[in-house]
Write a structure and sequence with these properties.
single chain, 145 residues, alpha+beta, GMP Synthetase, Chain A, domain 3, 3-stranded mixed beta sheet, two-stranded antiparallel ribbon, 5 strands, 20% strand, globular, disordered C terminus
Length: 145
């Protein structure tokens, strides 16, 4: 999984960072994650960039906003490049966390012909290809960002 990272804004986030930050947010909220993926949301005229997280929970947090804030704080503590980009939202704003229905990632893997064996959902992508494919599976579940 070394090729999986997000560095769209110079933040150099790697899977080790996101796994640990997610574990910290889960520990503090009682949430349990089945699977996740994250990718950049690019700047536009109205907003700074951000990371969009698609998370499939076994046990969802009671307060998703609080979970997002804890995830963000943990990631800042683990990664000084991310922290620098988050400072006063200069380059990155708070992550966007979307909850996926259970089975979404399995559906995506099945659609790709990769269900079972050694195939896993890529945790991080430096572009939006994967995340858009997963969002397309769920257009009826939640609105596009």
């Amino acid at each position: 999984r070394l090729k999986h990272f997000i560095n769209a804004f110079g933040e150099e986030v790697i899977v080790d960072n996101t796994d640990k930050a997610l574990a910290e947010a889960c520990q503090q909220t009682g949430a349990i994650v089945n699977d996740y993926t994250a990718a950049p949301v690019y700047f536009n005229e109205n907003a700074q960039g951000a990371h969009q997280w698609l998370i499939e929970f076994e046990q969802s947090p009671l307060d998703v906003q609080q979970f997002t804030i804890l995830l963000d704080k943990a990631l800042q503590q683990l990664n000084s490049d991310y922290e620098a980009k988050r400072y006063r939202d200069i380059a990155l704003r708070l992550p966007q966390v979307s909850l996926l229905p259970r089975g979404t990632f399995a559906d995506w893997l099945r659609k790709k012909g990769k269900l079972g064996g050694q195939h896993k959902v890529p945790r991080l992508s430096n572009d939006r290809t994967l995340i858009e494919e997963i969002l397309q599976l769920n257009t009826t579940t939640f609105a596009q960002p």
